[in-house]
Amino acid sequence: MHQASIRTADQADLVHLTTLDTHVRAAELERVVSLGRALLAEQDSEIVGWLRWSLFWDEHPFMNMLMVRADLRGNGIGTSLIEAWLDSARASQHVRVMTSTLSTESAQHFYRRLGFVDCGELQLPGEPVELLFRMELT
């Protein structure tokens, strides 16, 4: 398989995204796509990964979801999605981006390797600690 191409999701993608991204309500996913805050990775016209974000404190792009098809992880697709997201944030003159992951997930090591730094924790009842990360873009 060739390298994935990255593009901004559009309304036509919602049919596929709502079945793939079950971590968010369909109405919210539609809003995110309408705002241009979802990126897709495609190989051979098939969605193999996606990234969606919101704004933390209405100011800092916050990556809410990064997902790559399990059998394709470790092939640079997630990195390509994040790089496209960072380029978009820089083009919009943001100075910082943020994300988080559970302390039990290996994604924390991936984010640190890409240059994200720890900036806090959130403890919700009955859940593992949520680790917060930031990256300065200046």
Please provide a written account of the structure.
With 138 residues, the chain is α+β, with helices and mostly antiparallel strands. 28% of the residues lie in helices and 36% in strands. The protein has 4 helices and 7 strands, in the order E-H-H-E-E-E-H-E-H-E-E. The protein has helices at 14-20, 26-34, 77-91, 107-113; strands spanning 5-8, 38-43, 46-56, 60-68, 96-102, 117-122, 130-136. It has a 7-stranded mixed beta sheet with strand order 1-2-3-4-5-7-6, covered by helices on one side. Strand 6 and strand 7 form a beta hairpin. The protein is globular and about 40 Å long. The N and C termini lie far apart (35 Å). The mean pLDDT is 95.
Per-chain topology:
Elements: E1 5-8, H1 14-20, H2 26-34, E2 38-43, E3 46-56, E4 60-68, H3 77-91, E5 96-102, H4 107-113, E6 117-122, E7 130-136
Parallel strand pairs: 4-5
Antiparallel strand pairs: 1-2, 2-3, 3-4, 5-7, 6-7
What sort of overall outline do the alpha carbons produce when their principal axes are compared? Answer: globular
Binned, the helix content reads 25-40%
- Major beta-sheet overview: 7 strands, mixed
Strand order of the largest sheet: 1-2-3-4-5-7-6
Structural class: alpha+beta
Percent range for β-strand residues: 35-45%
* Rg (CA only): 15 Å
The helix/strand series, from N terminus to C terminus, equals EHHEEEHEHEE
The number of helical elements comes to: 4
Mean pLDDT value: 95
Say how many strands there are. 7
- The parts where pLDDT drops under 50 for at least 5 residues are none
Oligomerization state of this entry? single chain
Terminal Cα span = 35 Å
Pfam families: Acetyltransf_7
Protein name: GNAT family N-acetyltransferase
InterPro entries: Acyl_CoA_acyltransferase, Bact_Acetyltransf, GNAT_dom
Keywords: Acyltransferase, Transferase
